[in-house]
Amino acid sequence: MTKSYEKPKLMSEDGKRHDGRLPEDLRPIKMEVGILKNASGSALVEYGGTKVIAAVYGPREAQPKHISIPTRAIIRCRYHMAPFSTHERKSPAPSRREIELSKVIREALEPAIISELYPKASIDVFIEVLNADGGTRTAGVTAAALALADAGIPMRDLVAGIAVGKVEGVLVLDLDELEDMYGEADMPIAAMPGKGVITLLQLNGVLTPEEFEEALQLAWKGLKKIYELQKEALKKRYTELSIES
Amino acid sequence: MSVTPQAELIPKLKADAILRLLERKERIDKRGLEDFRPIEIITNYIKNAEGSAYVKLGTTQVVVGVKLEVGSPYPDTPNEGVLIVNAEFVPLASPSFEPGPPDENAIELARVIDRSLREYRAVDMKKLVLIPGKKVWLVWLDIYVLDHGGNLIDASSIAAMAALLVTKIPKAEVNKDTGEVTIDKTQYVAELPIRGSVVTVTIGKIGNYLIIDPTYEEEQIIDTKVTIAVSSDGKIVGIQKSGMGDLTLNDVKKAVNIALAKAPQILQQIENTVGRLKTTEN
Fold this sequence. Notes:
The complex is a heterodimer.
Chain A lengths: L28 E5 L7 E7 L2 E12 L12 E8 L14 H14 L11 E11 L4 H15 L9 E8 L2 E4 L3 H6 L2 E8 L4 E11 L1 H36 L1
Parallel strand pairs in A: 4-5
Antiparallel strand pairs in A: 1-2, 2-3, 3-5, 6-7, 6-8, 8-9
Helix pairs in contact in A: 1-2, 2-4
Chain B lengths: L1 E2 L8 H12 L15 E5 L7 E7 L2 E12 L10 E8 L14 H17 L8 E3 L3 E13 L4 H14 L2 E8 L4 E12 L6 E9 L2 E4 L3 H6 L2 E8 L4 E7 L4 E2 H26 L8
Parallel strand pairs in B: 5-7
Antiparallel strand pairs in B: 2-3, 3-4, 4-7, 6-7, 8-9, 10-11, 10-12, 12-13
Helix pairs in contact in B: 3-5
């Protein structure tokens, strides 16, 4: 093992984080829609060093037929990390973590998709983490929502994701891997900001009730920023398309 | 891959009855919206386990067994023991459970309980080292669901905490020359070091109503659940939203307040049964 497990200093005296950000700052965010030719819809999302790609196939016939539901489309969702996305090679076989995250991400998207419009169909969402540096599930939700919109699937709202957490006693937005690993708490959240509802909420770590309320408010600020960037990315994609044609 | 589950069909009459009663702030089993069902806890239920508990929550029945083994620590925590939480939804517990490896629901349940215990450091892992960097105690916590009557996670969390509180550490002799450890399970030398207790409280949302400890039937018509893990010193030590619906910010805040109010009662009942909620110092 060459890696040191000593906890690095994560907050400086002047209130800055180890990468120079203030507690409320997001990392540089990049979003690009329609990046894959074969998929019905796709998106690439980067939160700092985290790079995630999402693709949507469908609505298409559910296979095998017996998994279909007569009154709505089923959503199939896979969150998966590429073997080269982490410091140590990750086995491509689905881990328990990936199985759980596939479930919570599907449940984060379900309330947004108007699935009743496509009885017996399947809408498939595939998320691949290409490079992991903290916040992969929230970047994954953000990318998946863009890919669904790009696929033209009717939605009640976009779904935006961000993590809030506590690092050396300070509540911070958009944790990177180091802050997630050595911080006291990590709380990933996804929401439909336009509708004001939360669709994914997890807390790994310890918070007092007061800190929790504050964290929720901070997360909401971050979610609104992500939401605006999502709308910009979609507009950019489709204004470009109209110029091309 | 996670797939939208097919909803279990419960008779429409029953679903209607549940919804109608909720409007009057009542439940089909006469409970209030924020009442748990009766909880029965039996500790040391499994004699061959180092610690165990049987929990009956309404009609839900769960057994947790804790087994201790000697093994290697994780490379990033060379001077700490290891806690491994696993859940089995065995087919005898519900018509919807199939034999085979744990599905996403069993994995989620185990991981939520694992995180609540781990993040709060409920078990003092630093005290479970036999040879620093080489040999430590592995604490295997296995959750076995016997009868699915709804709210498996809270029943499992109660059983997990009760089992850990009664877990005893077998005698272990370290051979300094060979680095080998011999365990003698006929003799127990200590109780598992516990820093504090943790329990989950699960709140379900049906329409605009929040209810706690949902039954199996209520779970079938619930939009969303949120599980809040609370520690014995009143901190929030884990949250998991599950289910296909959404929650307003206000719902979440209300759910957290309900959990903070209810958890001390459950922890008290565990303490009364176990006769021990003593904690070791840091």
